[in-house]
Design brief:
single chain; alpha+beta; Immunoglobulin-like; globular
Length: 507
């Protein structure tokens, strides 16, 4: 008979300037002893009632409680700053916290601290595949967001198309483990405060004639290798704000993962009830926006479809018209007084390929909204590489190789107004101050274990800078020296604006 191992996990599922949503859960494994080492097999949710009755889910907003729980949050002196108790859920909001303040926390379930001590993490090496002790412990700390009226700098990260999983060893087109390891290091080294995803948070595990077989993302256990394990020591420290991708919905899979997306990202607990204030628009699709202090506002735009038969993308649905109009108001000319308005989506408006191209519906509906409201930068995924374009005064970034990599180079540079690209695993680190934004493309972690910037190229194949400086008011940038790519793109900006207008008129 096999033995069973339960591995506990912790999760900073939501954060504001005065409250933290802290969650916990665990995954179960069958462990069989073999001559060449133990064999580890993740227990499917559908089998949990045989292992831990009456449990049916591992983790997430709707998972059955593991017992009587208490969440304790401590300030820098070690004093108790807030607590919450529950017997009905595996998550709790701790309120009454101070803005822009660092805290530590712990979760106690049935009188014992959850996930204390050295943890076991999934390894794939010459010794086989399974959970191994690796000398890592949870460092449960977070910093609340600044007060909505306070001006504060921000460093955040962007990752997309990552949900391929780390169950098997990496290869030329699979790099989620290495990108996740680099992100883990960057959170501490660069002071990252939050993480945006650009969609495709989870993929079907296998396909047969184009249809998913086995893992699809519609159960909690499907998320172990794709989310909870790769980002284990990230998601307990910073909140994640997801965009929905085509693989997260019924658009390209037989099984719609949207309900699991809502469950595992605690979207109802974070954004339901915000509709009346104009901060969310849920159903159909997922649109929301949130402030980080007074200087930054993020806007998540759902560019997916309900299914491959449903022609319009969710942002074209009449239900979202009021939200989008409020999220992207006309600029009033008071540049310095407005926050940085930062949209993030799955599909990119501009894309040089090799598989995907410009999105006509986004050019028609969203790009005019971005331009009228003074947007300076847009972050997307979908194409499994890195790309940067600058069109009409807006910088467009594709970071879609957080797990999958498409090695073929893009080619439609002119139509996409591409300035640089890379066919390699990547994520972005973005530093935002009152007057400028600096975007740095980061590479997957190499054999030396050190963080490094992504090697990027211009359309001619020459090396290009992986760092992009975006001024709040470009007209007043004056004597500051701009990166080389800026000089080239600025000279073509009028032509790019004409190109957008001409293309929109054709649609």
């Amino acid at each position: 008979m096999p033995d069973f191992h339960a591995e506990p996990y912790l999760y900073l599922a939501g954060l504001t300037h005065k409250a933290a949503l802290i969650a916990w859960g665990g995954f179960y494994f069958r462990v069989r002893s073999r001559r060449d080492g133990d064999e580890w097999k993740l227990v499917d949710d559908s089998d949990l009632d045989h292992v831990h009755p009456p449990r049916r889910e591992s983790i997430g907003a709707r998972s059955e409680p593991f017992g009587s729980a208490r969440v304790e949050v401590f300030d820098s002196s070690g004093a108790l700053a807030g607590c919450a108790e529950t017997t009905a859920t595996n998550h709790a909001w701790v309120t009454g916290l101070a803005p822009d303040t660092e805290y530590t926390y712990r979760v106690v379930v049935n009188g014992e601290e959850w996930a204390a001590g050295e943890r076991r993490d999934w390894a794939t090496d010459a010794g086989g595949q399974g959970l191994r002790l690796g000398g890592r412990f949870y460092d449960n700390r977070f910093r609340t967001h600044p007060h909505p009226e306070a001006r504060a700098p921000l460093t955040f990260a962007v990752i997309g198309d990552f949900g391929i999983g780390v169950r098997r060893p990496s290869g030329p087109t699979r790099c989620q483990r290495e990108v996740a390891a680099a992100l883990d290091k960057a959170v501490a080294a660069r002071g990252v405060r939050l993480l945006l995803t650009t969609g495709d948070n989870i993929y079907a595990g296998k396909t047969l004639l184009g249809l998913p077989v086995g893992i699809t993302g519609d159960e909690d256990d499907d998320w172990f290798f794709t989310f909870y394990q790769p980002y284990r020591y990230v998601i307990n420290r910073i909140p994640v704000y997801p965009a929905v991708g085509n693989h997260d919905t019924g658009e390209t899979e037989a099984s719609d993962d949207r309900q699991q997306l809502i469950d595992n990202f605690f979207l109802d607990e974070r954004f339901t009830g915000e509709e009346s204030a104009g901060r969310s628009s849920i159903g159909p699709g997922l649109m929301y926006r949130f402030h980080y202090g007074a200087d930054v506002e993020f806007v998540c735009v759902d560019t997916s479809r309900q299914s491959w038969l449903f022609g319009d993308r969710f942002f074209e649905h009449a239900n979202h018209a009021a939200f989008l109009d409020a999220a992207f108001p006309p600029a009033d000319g008071g540049e310095a007084a407005r926050p940085w308005r930062i949209p993030f989506t799955h599909h990119p408006p501009f894309c040089a390929g090799p598989k995907h191209s410009n999105s006509k519906s986004m050019l028609r509906h969203l790009v005019p909204l971005f331009q009228r409201s003074g947007v300076k930068a847009v972050f997307s995924g979908h194409e499994h590489n890195f790309q940067h374009s600058r069109v009409g005064g807006v910088d467009y970034f594709i970071s879609g190789a957080g797990g999958k990599v498409r090695p073929e180079p893009p080619s439609d540079f002119a139509k996409a107004h591409t300035t640089s690209w890379a066919s390699a695993g990547n994520f972005l680190v973005v530093d935002v101050a009152a007057d400028r934004m600096v975007v740095t493309a980061m590479a997957a972690l190499g054999a030396d274990g050190e963080l490094s910037e992504l090697v990027t190229f211009d359309p001619a194949g020459e090396r290009a800078a992986p760092t992009f400086v975006i001024e709040r008011d470009r007209a007043s940038a004056g004597g500051r020296r701009a990166p080389a790519y800026f000089t080239r793109v600025q000279s073509d900006e009028h032509a790019a604006e004409v190109s957008i207008e001409a293309e929109a008129k054709k649609l």
